[in-house]
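The protein record filed here:
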Amino acid sequence: MKSTSRDIRIRNCFSVLRHLIADTPTSRQLLARETDLSVATVSNLVSDLIELGVVVEVGHEDSGGGRPRALLAPNADGGILVGIDVTTTYVQLEVYDLTLAPLLQREDQLDINETTPEQIIGHIDSGMKAVHEQLGGREVLGVGVSLPGQVDVAGGVSVFAPNWNWHDVPFSGLIEERLSLDVPIYLDNSLKTAAVGELWFGDGRGVERLAVVVLGTGVGVGLAVDGKLYRGATNSAGEWGHTTIHSDGRRCRCGRKGCIEAYIGAPGILRRWSEFGGDADVEAQTESMTALAAAWKAGEEAALRTVEDVAGELAVGMANLVNILNPDLVVVIGWVADLLGEALLPELERSLPEHGMEATLKALQLKVNHQPRNMVSLGAAALALEGHLTRINTVGARSRR
């Protein structure tokens, strides 16, 4: 679809705000240099953001002989954004100001039997009540919610969540009905929100071609091209975890055989550890993965063999990914990466050249995310911020006097 002039203005607005949040306070001149936009374009966008209460002037700096330059910053005292990371094991809610600095965090662990939309929304309801109790004087500008599985963004629908066997659940509508919210809800899946989090605050800032590999109970990849999230025709781009690496291999939770997720998702990793004689409990994934990481550090043979085996499967799948996409950077994130990244990365780097094309690996950077912030909930909040700006028609389009 061809971009309109408004699309371009909005994209430029996001770029200005991303740089302003990452390096604040700063001036219009420095923002123009960082974004490759003209000073006049940046000045117009900043004027709109100030009028909307998103940006404020916070002082001046010496310009080296001319008029002092105004210093700009996001309006930390303005409205707030909520980012919610829903997984099969927990619901984490974080509240941010417009600098995307965290103001409040709440995490509820999910019981293995909590699988219905009503149960999940119950935890979101509890979290939002805590927000109103503690930050009730602040306007909520938007709520971003990340769900596992396939999501219809426009309709706010969970199309398919395999772990819970959800099909076509109108999740946004159910939240609005339960919570009586009068603010927009931006629903997406963890692959997309993780990529947005990396674009705004992580290693992906300023990267042209980015792949964010998410390792957790499920597996997938968030993609960004030219600094913009890539969704595909049906918002299904990134279902890399359900690409086949063994045509007659393990049965995957999606119903097919040989998917990469069946080997490098948390249940698959724990299954392999159990096969090698490790003490794995698939019903207690976090505890078992923590035990596996400790066993690897202790040099236990079953753990060492498991890590080597899983890294080999990951190398095959990642080689397919980079051979097709040729990204500049692959960032590996997710709770499994947090626990096993130290073990997997050296083995992955050793095995990857056996499967990847030399030309695609030549310029590739591979990193494991070490940031303490939850990129999924942060990305969900950033989507809410983008949505807030997009739905305000005056951004970058006011008549100039």
